[in-house]
Structure formats: C-alpha cells, structure tokens
Amino acid sequence: MAGMDHNDVLFSRARAVIPGGVNSPVRAFRAVGGTPRFVQRAQGPHFWDADGRRYIDYIGSWGPMILGHGHPAVLEAVQKAALDGFSFGAPTEREIELAEAIIALVPSLEMVRLVSSGTEAGMSAIRLARGATGRKTIVKFEGCYHGHADALLVKAGSGLATFGNPTSAGVPPEVVQHTMVLEYNNLAQIEAAFAEHGADIACVIIEPIAGNMNFVRASVPFMARCRELCSRHGALLVFDEVMTGFRVALGGAQSVYAGLIPGFEPDMTVMGKVIGGGMPLAAFGGKRAVMEQLAPLGPVYQAGTLSGNPVATACGLATLAEIRKPGFFDALSAKTRALVNGLTAEAESAGVPFAADCEGGMFGFFLLPGLPQNYAAVMKSDGARFNTLFHGLLDRGVYIAPALYEAGFVSAAHTDEDIAATLAAAREVFAAL
Q: How confident is the model at residue 309 (pLDDT cuts 50, 70, 90)?
C-alpha cells in the first residue's frame, strides 16, 4: 500500500469486511469517483479526515448537525445522560419531555411516537395510515425518498397514475402493488389518481421540499390541491419532514406552507435528523384519533427496543433548546442565503449554468439554467460537470454531498469566513468548468 494515504488504506480495509466499504451507499463516492474521506473528528463547521486534512462541512451528517459539531450544551447533556445509563427498555421522563417539545413546536401534532431512524418512522406512518383508514393504496412521488422500507422502494410504471415496480432487488412486485408513484408537482396526475382510486387511497406521503432530488419545492398550488383531495376523499396527508423538520424553519416545512395556504396542516408527520441532534432518533405523529390506533391502545402494531433511547433524547432536547432561541433561524437563514447567492454569482461570472434555492439551513443547486420542478427535470443536471465541481471543492477543503441529487446543509457554527472561503474555492473551480 505504498503511496496510499490513510483514507485509501481504510477504504481498502473496509471493502474487505463491509459491502462497498460503507454502511450507507452514498458515502462510497460511487457517483463521483475517488476515495471517500474517513472522518476522524469534527468540531463546529469542520471535520478532519484520516490524514488530518480539514474540510468545511456542508453535509452535517446529512442534516442533523444544525448547531455544528460538538456544541457545548449538547455535549454536556449527552455526557450527563450517559452517566445515568445507555438504555433501559423502560419509559423515562425525558421521552415525555421530548414529545412535549416537538408537539409544542409543530401545531399539527397532538401525539408522537419516538423511534430510532427515519426509515422506521416512515414505515410505521404508512402502516398506521393504512390501519387508521382501512385502505391499502399509498401515493408517493418520483424522486421523494422515505427510507428503505420495501413498500417505498418503488418507481413509476408507464402511463398516468400507474402502480410501481421495485427499484431494489429483494422487493417482490406484490409488496409494491399498492404503491402508486406520481410525478412531483404534477397537478393533472394527482387529480387523475384520486378520480380513479380515491376510495382506495390510505395516504399521500410527500417530502414538502424534496431533499433527495437535491432541493425541489412542492409548489403552493400543488400542495394546496394535495391537501384538498386528501380531505375530500378521506385519505391522510403525510409530510415526510425527516430532512426539513426543524431544519428549514422552527415549525418545519409545514409552517412555511401554513404561511402560504390558509389553515394548512398535514394529518401526519414523519421526523428525524435534527430532533436527535446527531443521535439515532426519529418520530412520527399526528392527531390523537389517528395515533391512538397504535398499540398498546389500538390494533396497529409498532415497537422498538431502543425507541426513546435516553442518551438520544437528551441530545435531541438540548438541540431543540438551542434552536428555539430568539433569532436562531433568522441568522441561520441569512448564512445559507449568503452561501447560495454567492455560489450563484460565482457561477454566473464564470458562465456556468447554475440554479440554486434554500430555506432555513437547507440548500441545493443544479447545473441547469433554471430550477427543476420534478425528478425528470433534475436528471438533466450535468453530472460530469458536477463531479469536476465536487472534486475541485474537495481538493480545496470544502465538502459537499458526493452526489448530484442530495441537498446541502449549513449550520449555526458556519462563520462568514467559512462562507467566504467556500466562495473563493468555488470561484477557482467554476473558472475551470
């Protein structure tokens, strides 16, 4: 292994014992090429790789690190909780406190159930929607990701409002036969789906801002119509806010839409990432009448040995306490907007097709002349040019998502100097594109 750096050495070791050398596919750099960076430590808006190189971090553990790494108040809470015990398999007061804190910030929620991952929360919300409505069909949108539960690993078939085909080996077609996949932001398709199948639809699940298409907003007319159709036909509107919850605004993306659509709220919400502050923790919730269908009160079964873990809930509570402070989201939004506006200006100066958007501490960009509205349009972004951009930034100490279709994240720990350094790096790379 002469001549290999420590990241190469670790990746070689990892590939011998872990499929692809990683425990989540996007970490492998398969889309962009090269060797993934193995993180040794992180602090504030930075992390250091196996060779001690420092990077400005714009993935933030894919969203949870809204305060940056190693925030003192969060560290103190976690250390104290760890001294009391790692896991009990029995109720704790802290679980109640976290549930109360989430409900206080998200008006659509009356009850929540804590779980350990976004996939678990999404899977459980779908089961609960089916159990509460007595219906089978679920509607999702192409390009939205709701975890790797079997029924949600699906893509559209041909034609309008068709049912899905599995996108992963190991998922039998029968498992996804009741999953309907529509085009994001397509009003005609959602109208047709309800016209034909409205009595069978248990729920519509949607990322209000799709972060796995990089950053694509649901239009206000589209979201308003989804709400109207669900209400008219007795289906539940499920917001997947694993990525956007407490990240784009204190009340999540639903609070953004509530400010644009009078009386708007989803029936159920799936959350994760920020509510755990970097620990494995997620939740799903909704109105009391729906949530009381869950065991032990109702017939819909869901359980988890580590659900409501005492160390994770301490981390989440400390994180929520910080982001609730006056002015937090105004300052975070200003930093994110400065980054996005700066990148846009640098790309324009270099003559590179570029479009970007942001909300709160979440952002995304496309190597396109305008913002896309659906997955098909996103796929037209220039992948080869993105790979050059990614590696150019990486070589200059800026770490963005190693995939064309993933959103980015700014933390409260990012400074003006970090953003200036990022823009200086981007200026050099754009000039070479």
A: very high
The secondary structure of residue 173, as a DSSP letter, is G
Q: Which two tokens stand for residue 271?
A: 């959350």
Is 184 in the active site?
A: no
Single out the catalytic residue among 55, 145, 257, 399. 145
Whether the predicted pLDDT of 157 surpasses 50: no
Instruction: Give the separation between CA 413 and CA 65, rounded to whole angstroms.
Output: 9
Burial 354-367 (b: 16+ CB within 10 A, else e): bbbbbbbbbbbbbb
DSSP 38: P
Cis bond leading into 402, ω under 30°? no
Cβ neighbours for 111, distance < 8 A, ≥ 6 positions apart: 99, 103, 285, 286, 287, 288, 291, 292
Strand partners, 300: 294
CB-count burial class (<10 Å; 0-12, 13-18, 19+) for 168: exposed
144/29 Cα distance (integer angstroms): 21
**Model pTM?**
0.95
Task: Map residue 365 onto helix, strand or coil.
Answer: strand
Annotation says 273 is catalytic: yes
Among residues 49, 58, 140, 240, the one annotated as catalytic is 240
Is 257 annotated in the active site?
A: no
Which of 57, 273, 375, 418 is flagged as catalytic?
273
Q: Would you mind telling me the total number of residues written for the chain in this entry?
A: 433
